[in-house]
From TrEMBL:
It comes from Chelonoidis abingdonii (Abingdon island giant tortoise). Required for RNA polymerase III-mediated transcription. Component of TFIIIC that initiates transcription complex assembly on tRNA and is required for transcription of 5S rRNA and other stable nuclear and cytoplasmic RNAs. May play a direct role in stabilizing interactions of TFIIIC2 with TFIIIC1. WD repeats lie at residues 533-568. This is General transcription factor 3C polypeptide 2. InterPro entries: GTF3C_component, WD40/YVTN_repeat-like_dom_sf, WD40_repeat_CS, WD40_repeat_dom_sf, WD40_rpt. Keywords: Nucleus, Phosphoprotein, Repeat, Transcription, WD repeat.
Length: 824
């Protein structure tokens, strides 16, 4: 076989020329300085071609700063062999320069981690739980580090690859003497949608401790954004909320007509009694009692768990809390709408009218950690003939006044302004009075006759919002109205709505333009929009205004697109995302994006659930909040708790504590530990309550479903989350996320259609939920309330009491105080 030629390595040294080989051999054989004929001349060794080594370049640079008068260059061997280190570098006991490259590189990595990680400022000792390390353990670790660095005998060539400046060396020395590095708030947060995302306020220069567990059982890193949210929400509301708006839109007794029992029968929901249901509370031995509530009645609030349950008569499809000022300590109200029949279906493609009932429920004075002492009751209801209500929104601020405000008849003190989207394509705005003033008027009007059991009225609305123009007819060509959103910043003068054909219309409520405002014969107003644009190719399912900057709007349509809009440039959206069929969206207060609930019909396997989507300016990918097996019908966010709650078709209501989403969500830790169930509703046979389950029925009729089956609510103990991941509700939720069964061939009686967090500070831990069964439940997330929220609530109540004491009692004095006195 032919022998292969040896391959020379690239790193092998080049051989000297042939003419000089004998001289080198002679020198090696006879010595460096002698030869046969006498003293030999010094042998010249050829220099290596190429660039100088890093050590030579480094020492040449250092030589320029040591002595400017030295004429000759510094020898590499001289410096490497000397016992003194160059200026600017410390020397070890062995005499060589002390290593700093690894130390400064570690400092750089720590700074980089701080920029990519969600970080928070520390709280006071009475505001948030923190765990601290002992100083002795820190000193031991620092001394051990120094010893290891001093005794390190690695090659010096590694040290000279990275030479820091004197400022970096001093900074590294200061970091060694300080405490262990922890995450701190980034002072330069990425700018969001052109200035509408606020910067997080810093609580001080001390560094937080995000290790260990909080008193409620969650990790401190999970609870840190919850402790930070109350102060952020309060500061933003002080800037964007108003104390009094729309002074002309006051409720009047002349516009409220009470209906008799026979007159209101056509508006009442069809079911007289609720389906049978039981409640199993975690940690409490239940005796398997089955409850059945009459229409418009409720159960007594639980003394320990504080949950409230009441029956409204039909499937719930719209729900909203009535806003009130911070610290007012007033009863809380919830407005809702339910269909008349359990089996009722509506066509979305065409307009339709019919009788409907808008209900206002009083839940009493709710505390963050204490429930109401009285049952939930129906305060009053409004009978309408405009079809079903798909969405409703209250004016965010400036519409509430104390119920003790004295007004001259026929005016009444105002509870709030409510806008409702109807299936006939119109949006009606109602001025709601306090129940006390309405009941007093009812007693004066009804004398000697039978007193109605419930207060149901026909009401003349304040304004009717309609798409079109004065020359157009009364019928709307845009189809049904599915969503409305009130401008969140004062003076709350704009209201937006989305329609079936993909149109978004925006009205200017206090307009005086003759082209947009028409006075009706009955004294009410008809308003036409000042701006309309085609947002989607199909129905607009949800619309939401940015809570910080009213120039930005987000819409979600049946064309599977989510679009972010800048109202100053409507020719194209800021960002358009096509992913899945969105059912509802909510814009979180401090962040640059929305949380989305979706229908699972278009979702990929394993991606159905709840997502956080960035508006597009930061370029973040979608953050997966929680997986869901079925369609998520509703989602709601709490600005006070930095949390979202969602209800789905499987009957599970869950909540998730969100991280700091101003940073990249890809670096967020513990995503699976941030969500937890509030309750789970299951359809089970009545004979198997507390025992083994039997096969479920496959009927689509309510009457057949409730003959032998009932609902079972399994409530979670929300007072504490200690050992939560080993408790039964959490294990059940994770198990169902993986292998849950979904039966679509029957009526989903356990389905949850609407979920709403309370926007009020006085009841910021409460949320209400309702669905197909017509049973509405209210729960308090006691475990998420913090000392920060309690302290803020006490301050707001003291401030509100001081303002209420100085408030004039007469209506003219009150309006004059705000400079809003006008002739009624």
């Amino acid at each position: 076989m032919p022998r292969r030629k040896p391959v020379r390595s690239r790193k092998s040294k080049r051989k000297p020329p042939a003419c000089k080989r004998p001289a080198r051999a002679e020198a090696e054989g006879h010595g460096a300085g002698t030869s046969e004929n006498g003293p030999a001349s010094p042998v010249k060794v050829p220099k290596k071609r190429g660039r100088k080594s890093k050590a030579e370049l480094l020492l040449l640079k250092l030589s320029q700063g040591l002595d400017c008068q030295a004429p000759e260059p510094i020898c590499v061997q001289k410096i490497l062999g000397s016992n003194e280190a160059p200026d600017g570098l410390e020397a070890t006991p062995s005499g060589r320069p002390k290593r700093r490259a690894a130390k400064v590189a570690l400092l750089y990595l720590q700074e980089l981690a701080e920029e990519l990680t969600s970080v928070y400022q520390p709280l006071a000792s009475n505001e948030g739980p923190q765990e601290s390390e002992s100083n002795s353990s820190r000193k031991k670790r620092r001394s051990r580090r120094r010893k290891e660095e001093e005794t390190d005998e690695d090659d010096l060539s590694r040290d000279v690859d990275f030479v820091p400046s004197e400022e970096v060396l001093l900074q590294a020395a200061e970091e060694e003497e300080s405490d262990v590095l922890l995450s701190e708030v980034s002072e330069s947060e990425p700018e969001a949608v052109r200035g509408h995302t606020p910067r997080m306020p810093s609580a001080g220069k001390s560094k937080p401790q995000c290790r260990g567990l909080a008193p409620n059982g969650f990790h401190n890193s999970i609870m840190a954004p919850v402790w930070k949210c109350p102060s952020i929400t309060r500061s933003l509301r002080e800037r964007h909320y108003s104390s009094w708006e729309f002074p002309d839109w006051l409720p009047s007794t002349r516009k409220w007509t009470f209906l008799s029992e026979s007159e209101c029968a056509q508006y009442l929901p069809g079911e007289m009694k609720s389906p049978l249901f039981s409640i199993q509370r975690e940690g409490i031995e239940e005796d398997g009692v089955l409850y059945r509530i009459n229409r418009f009645n409720s159960l007594q609030p639980h003394e320990e768990r504080l949950d409230v349950s009441f029956f409204v008569g039909g499937p719930v499809w719209a729900m909203e809390w009535c806003p009130c000022p911070e610290g007012s300590a007033t009863p809380q109200y919830v407005a809702l709408y339910c269909n008349k029949g359990m089996d009722e279906q509506h066509s979305l493609a065409e307009l339709h009218t019919g009788p409907a009932l808008l209900q206002l429920w009083a839940l009493g004075i709710l505390q963050p950690e204490a429930g109401s002492a009285t049952k939930a009751r129906l305060a009053y209801a409004i009978a309408t003939d405009h079809g079903c209500i798909w969405d409703m929104k209250f004016c965010p601020s400036g519409a509430w006044e104390p119920p003790t405000t004295c007004r001259k008849p026929p005016q009444m003190s105002r509870l709030g302004l409510l806008a409702a989207a109807f299936s006939d394509g119109k949006v009606l705005v109602y001025s709601l009075p306090h129940p006390e003033g309405l009941i007093a008027h009812k007693r004066a009007q009804v004398k000697g006759g039978p007193f109605p059991k419930h207060t149901i009225c026909k009401v003349q609305c304040i304004a009717t919002l309609q798409v079109g123009s004065i020359q157009a007819g009364n019928s709307s060509e845009c189809g049904q109205c599915f969503s409305v959103s009130w401008m969140p910043s004062k003076p709350h003068q704009h209201l937006a709505a989305g329609f079936y054909d993909g149109t978004v219309a925006i009205w200017n409520l206090p307009t005086k333009s003759l082209l947009q405002r028409v006075r009706q014969a009955d004294g009410s107003l008809k308003l036409y929009p000042f701006r309309c644009f085609l947002a989607h190719d199909h129905a607009v399912r949800s619309i939401e205004w940015c809570k910080v900057n009213s120039n930005f709007l987000v819409t979600a349509g049946n064309d599977r697109k989510i679009k972010f809009w800048d109202l100053r440039r409507l020719y194209e959206p800021i960002n358009s995302i096509k992913r899945f069929l969105t059912t509802e969206i909510t814009w979180l207060l401090p962040y640059n994006g929305v949380t989305v609930a979706q229908d699972n019909c278009y979702a990929s396997y394993g991606l159905c659930g709840i997502h956080y989507i960035d508006a597009g300016y930061l370029g973040f990918k979608a953050y997966f909040v929680a997986p869901r097996k079925g369609t998520v019908w509703s989602i709601s966010s709490s600005d006070w708790l930095n949390a979202v709650a969602a209800g789905d078709i499987t009957g599970e209501l869950l909540a998730a504590v969100l991280p700091d989403l101003a940073m990249n969500p890809l670096n967020i830790k513990r995503p699976s530990e941030r969500r937890f169930p509030i309750y789970k509703a299951d359809l089970v046979p009545c004979s198997s309550v507390g025992g083994e389950e039997e096969p479920r029925p496959k009927s689509r009729m309510y009457s057949e479903m409730t003959k032998e089956h009932c609902l079972r609510f399994q409530d979670t103990d929300l007072r504490s989350f200690r050992n939560f991941f080993s408790r039964e509700p959490m294990r059940r939720m994770h198990e169902q996320e993986v292998k849950a069964e979904l039966s679509l061939d029957r009526m989903q009686l356990e389905s949850i259609h609407k979920v709403r967090f309370s926007p009020n500070l006085d009841s910021h831990g409460w949320l209400v939920s309702g669905g197909q069964s017509g049973i509405v439940r209210a729960h308090c997330l006691v475990g998420l309330t913090s000392p920060v929220g309690h302290k803020l609530l006490q301050e707001c109540r003291a401030q509100f009491s001081a303002m209420d004491g100085d408030r004039p009692e007469s209506p003219s004095g009150r309006l004059a105080e705000h400079g809003l006195l006008q002739e009624q």
